[in-house]
């Protein structure tokens, strides 16, 4: 990471300012996005006690996810049309307002509205990638993406721990005050240090119908997948969402200026990377769904280590630190051997890690070593480098739109992950004789490890099909 900082320190943006200052400002925005995604998990236990309904409380997660899926695509495209810095400022302002709204009331429905507004920060990721491509020379973009990815990997782990510290010492709403503070810092840093877009705003008409149809279609699909088996109308919502999405796709393919141009998927590399991101999000990326229960599960069940939740979260931090360093090293290595080999190596390490975990999971130190040296760094490098492959195969004026589409595929994979991994863990259960609680058996955990390894193998196959990571011309047609 130090070497990457030294290299980028000597780089300049296209208008002559320091690339380091630009990247630092974008890092603050990215930290805001990461913290808002993860700190809420530390408060769930207290929220269950406050509102008394876990299904109801989960809307604090679902609302954020639905808004994130929509904003990732729409925000990226709006940045391409109206200027990425301008749209980034708007998204950060919405995020701060949402954080303040959730922090100042305990009325559940209002807190959910605040979380939805917080979900707008998911547009930060594609906008930051687009701003790197817009302001840095192509040879420096990879290092910048790596640095942003490393910071995101670090704050994913830190967010859970920080949220726990806040909840343990203050009211749970204090996590929203922390989010508002970081969001305000990001807004001021962007306003001061990120150069305005060089090109004037586009005069092309805004695709309002595409924007209106896209958001509810994705929302209905994710909600239907998540609750279709438990709540009436879930299957209907799922089918309705799919039909709406088909209508939306047909409309967008025929539109002269679509909000999200599906024709980008006609390019082989774009399609393969998007599918790979979705499968990665279905399994390897969501490893905490199986690893945290493994660390906390009572030892009498035959598997698990009965650790406190805070300690279990702390054991994830070494993996985040290793992942941050691996992302930077991966970005530097990609400049020498190309993105495709780096993606293949990283996913190969991930596959090996999950296979090893399925065979050896009896000793705590073995689980922590595998998690820290294989699972966390492998998937983190893939998550950080996949957008760089998209950037390399997308004209400069479409980067925000293309990386936004990548985040949509990621959100869909995350929505499916809860169902897939939840089903694996429910295949074999053991019941506590004391309180009647159910816990997954060793066979259930091993089944989830094998499924994740299989998903990682599918991602490896998709990456093997990539043919090019060379940047294409800004004015190239897709």
List the helices and strands and how they pair.
Blueprint: H1 2-9, H2 19-38, H3 44-51, H4 54-57, H5 59-82, H6 84-103, H7 108-118, H8 124-135, H9 138-169, H10 174-193, H11 208-227, H12 234-254, H13 268-282, H14 288-296, H15 309-314, H16 317-337, H17 339-359, H18 364-392, H19 399-425, E1 429-431, E2 438-440, H20 442-464
Antiparallel strand pairs: 1-2
Helix pairs in contact: 1-9, 2-8, 2-9, 2-10, 5-6, 5-7, 5-8, 5-11, 5-19, 6-7, 6-8, 6-10, 8-19, 9-16, 9-18, 11-12, 11-19, 13-18, 13-19, 13-20, 16-17, 16-18, 17-18, 17-20
Kindly provide the radius of gyration, computed on alpha-carbon positions and rounded to a whole number of angstroms. 21 Å
Span between termini: 35 Å
Please give the count of helices: 20
Structural class by sheet pairing and helices: mainly alpha
Q: Report on the biggest sheet.
A: 2 strands, antiparallel
Low-confidence stretches: 471-478
Mean pLDDT: 78
Within the largest sheet, what's the order of strands?
A: 1-2
**Shape category:** globular
Estimated helix fraction: over 70%
Strand content: under 5%
Q: Total strand count, please?
A: 2
What's the SSE pattern?
A: HHHHHHHHHHHHHHHHHHHEEH
Question: Summed up, what is this model?
Answer:
With 478 residues, this protein is mostly helical. Helix content is 73%, strand content 1%.
């Amino acid at each position: 990471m130090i070497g990457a900082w030294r290299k980028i320190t000597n780089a300049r943006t296209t208008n002559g300012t320091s690339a380091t200052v630009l990247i630092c400002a974008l890092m603050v925005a990215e930290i805001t996005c990461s913290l808002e995604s993860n700190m809420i998990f530390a408060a769930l236990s207290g929220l269950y006690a406050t509102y008394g309904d876990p299904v109801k409380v989960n809307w604090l997660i679902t609302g954020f996810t639905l808004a994130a899926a929509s904003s990732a695509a729409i925000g990226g495209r709006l940045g391409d049309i109206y200027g990425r810095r301008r749209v980034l400022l708007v998204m950060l302002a919405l995020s701060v307002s949402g954080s303040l709204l959730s922090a100042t009331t305990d009325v559940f429905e209002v807190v959910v509205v605040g979380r939805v507004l917080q979900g707008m920060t998911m547009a930060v990721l594609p906008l930051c990638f687009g701003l790197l491509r817009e302001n840095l020379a192509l040879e420096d973009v990879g290092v910048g993406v790596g640095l942003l990815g490393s910071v995101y990997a670090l704050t994913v782990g830190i967010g859970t721990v920080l949220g726990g510290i806040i909840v343990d010492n203050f009211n749970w709403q204090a996590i929203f005050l922390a989010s508002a503070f970081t969001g305000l810092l990001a807004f001021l840093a962007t306003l001061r240090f990120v150069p305005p877009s060089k090109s004037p705003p586009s005069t092309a008409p805004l695709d309002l119908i595409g924007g209106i149809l896209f958001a509810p279609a994705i929302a209905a699909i994710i909600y239907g997948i998540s609750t279709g088996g438990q709540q009436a109308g879930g299957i209907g919502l799922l089918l309705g969402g799919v039909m709406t999405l088909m209508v939306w796709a047909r409309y967008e393919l025929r539109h002269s200026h679509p909000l999200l141009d599906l024709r980008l998927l006609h390019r082989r590399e774009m399609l393969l990377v998007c599918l790979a991101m979705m499968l990665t999000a279905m399994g390897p990326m969501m490893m905490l769904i199986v690893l945290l229960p493994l660390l906390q599960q009572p030892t009498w069940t035959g598997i698990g280590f009965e650790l406190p939740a805070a300690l279990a979260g702390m054991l994830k931090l070494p993996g985040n630190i290793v992942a941050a360093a691996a992302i930077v090293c991966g970005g530097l290595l990609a400049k020498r051997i190309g993105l495709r080999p780096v993606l293949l190596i990283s996913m190969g390490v991930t596959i090996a890690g999950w296979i090893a975990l399925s065979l050896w999971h009896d000793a705590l130190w073995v689980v922590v070593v595998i998690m820290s040296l294989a699972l966390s760094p492998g998937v983190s490098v893939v998550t950080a480098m996949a957008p760089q492959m998209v950037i390399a195969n997308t004209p400069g004026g479409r980067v925000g739109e293309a990386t936004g589409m990548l985040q949509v595929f990621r959100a869909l994979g995350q929505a499916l992950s809860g169902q897939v991994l939840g089903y694996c863990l429910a295949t074999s259960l053991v019941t506590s004789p004391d309180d009647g609680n159910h816990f997954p058996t060793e066979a259930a955990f091993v089944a989830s490890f094998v499924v994740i390894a299989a998903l990682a193998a599918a991602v490896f196959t998709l990456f093997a099909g990539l043919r090019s990571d060379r940047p294409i011309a800004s004015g190239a047609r897709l």
